[in-house]
Amino acid sequence: MANITDVENLIKEQLHVSEIDPNATLSTYGLDSLDVVEFLLSLEEKFSISFESEETKDVKTVGDLLKLVKKKLK
Length: 74
Fold this sequence. Notes:
single chain; Non-ribosomal Peptide Synthetase Peptidyl Carrier Protein, Chain A
């Protein structure tokens, strides 16, 4: 079963960074809205979870994304 560290590592890999700032917006890392959708789809596939559009509409920061995924992994 995946844990939040696995998610953080995937985020670092996808964003090509060694450290992530939970307060940074996804656009800070160069992700536009299409990139975010693709990224969410890759998270769904990798961790066998699914997101509803209602849940993802307020994801603006890396921290928001981590919180959402952590909730799904429980």
